[in-house]
Amino acid sequence: MPLHAVTPLRDPAYRHGNWEYSLRLPYCPLSPGIARTTAHLVLNRHSLPELGDRARLLASELATNCYLHAPGPARMRLSWEDGMVRMSMWDTGRTLPGVAEHPAPDGLVAGPGRGLRLVGAYADDWGWYALDPNRLGVEGKIVWCELYR
């Protein structure tokens, strides 16, 4: 039986069920592109293409920050619940995110923090928190963002 015959791609009700995906990203310069492609593909397959472009940008920025500022692998989590897509990115870095404060003359943000400035501009909500290795057995941080339908 062909794959397309068993996947509910054409059923608009399918996107309204809650779902969650998790992707382990190695410490590799290809990881941001893979995260970007995965986010876009998942939302398109769940009949949410209107969120795909923003999700692609946000996944790319969050995964790039993981690669640039953490010494090890990362994990992307993408979920849908109650009309909202939540994307979170865990990494092993101990440095908490910073946001650039001063725009460059052309209106773009220069230097460190530019990616999180974009996250703040394109996500409906976002934030971060540090993980306590003594409490959770894992260290690092999670940066998350939400896209509302």
Task: Label the structural class.
Answer: alpha+beta
Number of beta-strand segments: 5
Major sheet: arrangement of strands: 1-2-3-5-4
How many angstroms separate the termini?
34 Å
Task: Report the major sheet.
Answer: 5 strands, antiparallel
Fraction in helix: 25-40%
Quick structural gist:
By secondary structure, this protein is an alpha+beta fold. 34% of the residues lie in helices and 26% in strands.
3D architecture notes:
This protein is α+β, with helices and mostly antiparallel strands and 149 residues long. The chain has helices spanning 3-6, 31-45, 52-69, 114-122, 133-136; strands at 19-25, 74-81, 84-91, 125-131, 140-148. The protein has a five-stranded antiparallel sheet with strand order 1-2-3-5-4. The radius of gyration is 16 Å and the shape is globular. The N and C termini lie far apart (34 Å). 28% of the residues are buried. The mean pLDDT is 83.
List the helices and strands and how they pair.
Elements: H1 3-6, E1 19-25, H2 31-45, H3 52-69, E2 74-81, E3 84-91, H4 114-122, E4 125-131, H5 133-136, E5 140-148
Antiparallel strand pairs: 1-2, 2-3, 3-5, 4-5
Question: What descriptive keywords fit this protein?
Answer:
149 residues, alpha+beta, five-stranded antiparallel β-sheet, 5 helices, 34% helix, 26% strand
